[in-house]
Amino acid sequence: MMRRGLAALLLCAAPAWAVLTVRDDAGRSVAVVAPAQRVIALAPHATELVAALAPERIVGVDSASNYPPTVAALPKVADFSSINVERILALRPDLVVVWESSAISQPLTVLLRHGIPVFVSKPQSPVEVAGGLRRIGHLLGQDKAADALAAQIVQRDRALRQRYAGAPPVRVFLQVNEKPLMSLSRKSFLGQALNTCGAVGPYDTAMVEAPLASTEVVLGFAPDVLISTGPLSTLQQWQAWPAIPAVAHKQVLSIADDIYVRPGPRLIDGMEKLCAAIDRIRAH
């Protein structure tokens, strides 16, 4: 009886962190002892994920985070290539959300050594964005709000897939860098977004997310549309080949807006606009 009583007492006294445990996009187990109240987001899409559920709990961000506008006043503790671990520790976060990259490897070790839970976020589709929202929402104690927003994103993604599933393919070259010339494959969220819209590209099946591109390959592919993640001026070089259908019909697009290039809650907004733009070209 004594043993049973002691076991029951220990069970009751056990921390509740087990119910706030998830796996991040790197496959790691992430746990918090209570709903996270002080969150640092070290990538723009991560900031938007947390802000969609509990913007008031964000206490620090990276230098590129600019949405929602309220994050502008927050401490900037990282940029694309470096993370200020000392400033992060000084802000006493109980959760840090990061983008998976080589830059996070060493800082991640230090943060974990200090007992700070770190969630690695790298969604590559609206469905994965929804999954990330649910898991981050769980760590924030915002399951209901996260589930509702995630369900909307999944439904809108499903509607896009159904709408364009049988549409005639549109040949698209997506340019993400001018020199060196680079594109994206379907391993990337933008490549997958174009696939959802019924677009096909010359580097869809590349083994890396951002393959180096070749002018000769693009010319041979004869894209109906040229799309740049930068300003339209970055596509100016293709005017030298007026036989390209995209150039001949002036079908060039810029998707430099954040809603297209961040895998956060607004990605589905960008996809709907992108699909509509491609569909208009398809109709011609």
UniProtKB/TrEMBL annotation:
<keyword id="KW-0732">Signal</keyword>
<dbReference type="Pfam" id="PF01497">
    <property type="entry name" value="Peripla_BP_2"/>
</dbReference>
<dbReference type="InterPro" id="IPR050902">
    <property type="entry name" value="ABC_Transporter_SBP"/>
</dbReference>
<feature type="signal peptide">
    <location>
        <begin position="1"/>
        <end position="18"/>
    </location>
</feature>
<dbReference type="InterPro" id="IPR002491">
    <property type="entry name" value="ABC_transptr_periplasmic_BD"/>
</dbReference>
<dbReference type="InterPro" id="IPR054828">
    <property type="entry name" value="Vit_B12_bind_prot"/>
</dbReference>
<protein>
    <submittedName>
        <fullName>Vitamin B12-binding protein</fullName>
    </submittedName>
</protein>
<dbReference type="GO" id="GO:0071281">
    <property type="term" value="P:cellular response to iron ion"/>
</dbReference>
<feature type="domain" description="Fe/B12 periplasmic-binding">
    <location>
        <begin position="38"/>
        <end position="284"/>
    </location>
</feature>
